[in-house]
Design brief:
The structure holds 3 protein chains of 3 kinds. Chain B is an all-alpha fold. In chain B, 74% of the residues lie in helices and 0% in strands. Chains A and B meet through helix 1, helix 4, helix 5, helix 6 and helix 7 of A and helix 1, helix 3, helix 4, helix 5 and helix 6 of B.
């Protein structure tokens, strides 16, 4: 174990690659942030400045004072959270069935769940709107939750199925031989080991719901609006409200990253080391 | 485990998913399939009628369709391919212990957390031919001698768009593969160390085979997702200049937006069939693995 | 017994009074959808709705909801929602989206309302005719709201440096593009371009002026005159008089390039003038796009429509007329700087004293629109930008490009 010694090989094989990755992944945001605090003259000059000569927080002020950004944020949060919970629950059940059982129609159903995602949404918009309207859930968060689950569930089933298949059956069988029921085996043995995968899948579902635009613009009104639609409002015919848009964007990214910071603790290694005895 | 009598359990477990998908997607999807056999143009609602395979024939003769299809192939191969490779690399790095790992993991997610509209704007600004920072950096490094209007000419527009989708997709693979890495027992690596294996051998002999299933599935899902994705391209170039960034899904989107739904439906069905073919290759492999 | 009679009387009176009161002040809600080009305009719309609600005296309440413009996808969102059975009572709209709505019978016919309207003569007949043309019927389905006439912004200081005066003919304009393109610091790289060309979606509007100047028109893009105009367009790109990013430059880019001094001239309308004045003060002015054999400039528009599904059409019309000729017209046009459709409002000093308004009015006689067919939206969004880009980049010739444009708009 490295006891704080500064190993060159570690720098080369770990820190430098990490740095390169993070520069690539994060530079656009740095640049966008810098753009949002530059005054317009500096923005469009021939000389590109990497840190503004003059900073202006005008856009941020505008965002908070004139614009109610809190409502879309809570709406987005609600929709994304509910979608994640519903999708995870439903998908986990189905994925477990596909993984641990062999039954008639299994392959067909799995393929069915895959193909439904291949269909472009633009064609489904009008009939979906009519369905939402008839169900009476239009302009409520439920409309979005229902639409989002239709494409998050198939993907999640496949993802969880994949993770489950990489976990050998011997795990539950060992427990069941010891007298546990299938449900207990699932809850006590599989679920804890599967937790990192559930976290990853849940994150994926959350992101998808958080960023979705096409359904959101049709199925929400001002009260139930979500963030992507609100941000689009800042792009009018006469150009982009650069500052407000990036300010809004940055503000939506930060809470999600914080949430994920706590969630990623579940992605720790060593959960299985020693747990599998055969 | 073979059971002689029919076990209702699996069906019960699947039913919630099935019910949701059925009610909300199945009916509109069938509707869309029916549209492809009709002259379904909402700009001329009075002439909607059954025209059999005419749409399909028209699509197959449409040069723009084939061009978009080829673009889609390139889009997927380079986009998903590089996303996977770089994402895998990042996953391996994030799996190691180091100070600030938690923060690193959360932060690496950011490209994926960003709304599509913001991604489009950010990268458009970076690629800008007059005030863009990419041009500035390349000029200062002496790599180019005059500014390149990246998004304004065919040769550079498509690669530029691909770089952006790679950027967006790296966190997805990093996250999914990282989760999969947790499931590999540490003892396998310990045993390999004892045998004197180096990093490469450990990677190719232990890590990758253990992740086989999840690699297959994530790449397959990502291929379907990227093939169908519209918002990155649309926000950057809307399919131009001169259709050079128009993949099939963008083509369908544009046609669907102009409400020529019958034609759009036909093209999307053909795209679905192509994706299905690709998927079948994967599925064969996956189902085979599962039987082992 | 007496108590009962009293109670009965009071009860009856209560019923009668409330019925009368109810009939008189039947509260009505009108839902209005709109897009806003920035948060200030959005706030203005909300203020207008509040003002209307407070002053209409007929117990009408307007609820104004904002939806994203999204590069024009606003119209599609509205369409899908109405087709799905929902939607607002009234909405802002663009002329080009009209065929879609009228083909599906989604708009309310306004003929009778306008015929009986006291402010009917406030609006030019030519505008009413444009509304009728847009619908392809002899009826009016759109209520005019405001217009924007495209003209050419220019930098007087740059004209002075290059030693030229404001172009009065098309050929002088082309010459100006050349003369204004300069390398100002002697490093061999062009620093200022003569013209800020718009090649992305929306660029068909300035482009049309080139076509008409040579004697072409929109009925036949393949005529020799129209092709000549197209060739001029390609030539100024090839010769480097416009920035090389032109193929993808949209509104944002041409304005940025003009404001930063990278271009000497660019085409837009009065909506962007407040920003111009803020940046340049006096060093910005405008002239109408000149002609030669012919002359044309684009008339941008925003109208309001009433949906056929609206249940309170009378109330909705009250709101529409407030916007067109009432206080709403004055408020909106003052804030946005757009050209009012109401003659009275046009006469207000704030409009008469604006130099850009003057140029708009000067160019108005030759202002027109593209043919509004059901293929127009796709032509504007996809076919025009991509065909033009291909021509500019030398992939196809001017003749081929015009053929493609003709087929794209009029079919085979």
């Amino acid at each position: 174990m490295k006891k704080g010694k500064f190993k060159l090989s570690r720098v080369l094989s770990l820190y430098i690659p990490l740095a390169v990755y993070f520069i690539f992944l994060l530079f656009p945001f740095y640049w966008t942030f810098v753009t949002s605090i530059k005054p317009e003259k500096e923005l469009y000059s021939s000389l590109v400045t990497y840190w503004p000569n003059n900073t202006t927080l005008a856009s941020y002020k505008k965002l908070f004072l004139n614009f109610n950004f809190l409502k879309p944020m809570t709406n987005s949060l609600l929709v994304a959270a509910v979608t994640t919970i519903v999708s995870l629950t439903v998908s986990l059940l189905a994925a477990y069935a596909f993984s641990r059982y062999r039954f008639k129609g299994r392959k067909l159903l799995m393929t069915l769940f895959l193909t439904n995602n291949m269909f472009p949404t633009v064609l489904l918009l009008i009939p979906l709107y009519a369905i939402m309207r008839n169900l009476g859930i239009l302009y409520t968060p439920m409309a979005l939750v229902l639409s989002y689950t239709t494409f998050t569930i198939p993907f999640s089933i496949w993802l969880l199925n994949g993770y489950l298949n990489d976990l050998p059956r011997s795990l539950e069988e060992a427990a069941m031989i010891d007298g546990a029921s299938r449900t207990q085996a699932f809850l006590k043995i599989i679920f804890p080991i599967l937790l990192p995968c559930i976290v990853a899948t849940g994150a994926y579902i959350f992101m998808t719901a958080w960023n979705e635009y096409t359904f959101a613009v049709m199925f929400t009104n001002e009260a139930s609006r979500t963030i992507p639609v609100t941000l689009k409002n800042l792009i009018g015919q006469l150009g982009v409200e650069w500052g407000m848009l990036t300010a809004g964007g940055i503000i939506t990214i930060i809470p999600v990253c914080i949430m994920f910071f706590f969630a990623q603790k579940r992605l720790t290694e060593g959960l299985t080391a020693g747990a599998v005895k055969g | 485990m073979q059971r002689k009598k029919i076990n209702l359990w699996p069906y019960l477990l699947i039913s919630p998913a099935l019910i949701i998908i059925f009610t909300v997607v199945f009916v509109p999807a069938v509707n869309a399939i029916l549209m492809s056999f009709q002259n379904y143009d909402l700009r001329r609602p009075k002439s909607i009628g059954f025209i059999g395979l005419d749409n399909y024939i028209a699509v197959l003769h449409d040069q723009l369709f084939w061009q978009s299809l080829w673009k889609t192939v390139q889009w997927v191969v380079f986009g998903v391919g590089f996303q996977f490779v770089f994402g895998f690399g990042l996953a391996l790095l994030l799996n190691k212990k180091f100070f600030g790992r938690g923060i690193a993991r959360s932060v690496s997610l950011i490209p994926w957390v960003t709304p599509g509209v913001l991604i489009g704007l950010m990268w458009r600004w970076i690629y800008d031919g007059n005030y863009g920072v990419l041009n500035d950096i390349l000029l200062k490094l002496g790599i180019i001698s005059e500014k390149i209007p990246f998004l304004a000419q065919q040769a550079t527009a498509f690669p530029a768009v691909i770089v952006t989708i790679i950027w967006q997709g790296i966190p997805f693979f990093a996250l999914m593969l990282l989760a999969g890495l947790q499931g590999i027992p540490g003892e396998l690596y310990d045993a390999a160390d004892v045998d004197g294996a180096n990093e490469f051998q450990k990677l190719f002999r232990i890590t990758i085979p253990s992740l086989k299933n999840i690699i297959f599935i994530t790449t397959m899902l990502r291929i379907i997702w990227v093939a169908n994705s519209v918002d990155i391209i649309f926000n950057l170039t809307e399919g131009g200049p001169a259709y050079s960034t128009q993949t099939l899904s963008v083509f369908v989107f544009n046609k669907g937006n102009s409400l020529n739904l019958g034609y759009a439906a036909t093209m999307s069905i053909m795209l679905t069939l192509v994706l299905l073919l690709v998927a079948i290759l994967y599925l064969k492999n996956i189902f085979k693995n599962q039987e082992e | 017994m007496k108590k009962f009679l009293v109670f009965f009387l009071v009860f009856t009176m209560f019923v009668i009074l409330s019925a009368a009161g109810f009939a008189q002040s039947n509260p009505v809600t009108v839902t209005h959808w709109y897009w806003a080009d920035n948060p200030t305009y959005s706030a203005t719309m909300q203020e207008m709705a509040a003002d209307f609600n407070a002053t209409n005296g007929k117990n009408i309440t307007v609820v104004a909801e904002e939806y994203p413009w999204d590069g024009g996808a606003y119209s599609e969102t509205l369409f899908r929602v109405v087709m799905g059975g929902g939607g607002p009572d009234t909405s802002s709209a663009k002329l080009t989206s009209t065929p879609l709505f009228t083909a599906n019978e989604l708009l309310a016919n306004l003929d009778e309302y306008i015929a009986n309207w006291q402010d009917k003569d406030e609006i030019e007949d030519s505008l009413y005719n444009t509304m009728k043309d847009a619908s392809g019927t002899g009826s009016i389905y759109l209520m005019p709201w405001n217009t924007q006439v495209l003209y050419v912004y220019y930098r007087p200081s740059m004209f002075k440096e290059a030693g030229i005066s404001v172009p009065k003919t098309y050929n002088e304009f082309l010459e100006a593009c050349k003369k204004l393109t300069r390398d100002t610091n002697g490093d061999g790289v062009t620093d200022v371009y003569g013209f800020g060309m718009r090649g992305a979606k929306g660029g068909h509007e300035p482009w049309g002026s080139f076509i008409w100047a040579r004697g072409g028109n929109f009925k036949d893009f393949t005529s020799a005159e129209a092709v000549a105009g197209m060739q001029d367009f390609i030539d100024i790109f090839k010769n480097g008089y416009v920035p090389p990013t032109a193929t993808m430059d949209g509104y944002q880019e041409i304005i940025a390039n003009f404001k930063s001094g990278k271009t000497a001239m660019t085409v837009h309308h009065i909506g962007s003038s407040p920003g111009m004045i803020e940046t340049f003060g006096d060093d910005v002015d405008a002239f109408p796009f000149p002609g030669d054999v012919g002359q044309w400039t684009s008339m941008g528009d925003t109208e309001n429509v009433m949906l056929e599904s609206c249940e309170n059409k009378d109330a909705a019309f009250e709101w529409l007329s407030y916007l067109a000729t009432g206080k709403g017209q004055e408020t909106w046009c003052t804030v946005t700087g757009n050209v009012p459709v109401s003659k009275t409002v046009q006469q207000l000093p704030v409009f008469q004293n604006s130099k850009f308004m003057k140029v708009s009015i000067e160019a108005a006689p030759v202002a027109g629109i593209y043919p509004i067919l059901d293929t127009t939206t796709e032509w504007i969004s996809t076919i025009w930008p991509n065909t033009i880009a291909a021509a500019l980049l030398g992939q196809i010739t001017a003749t081929d490009a015009m053929k493609q444009l003709q087929t794209g708009l009029y079919g085979k």
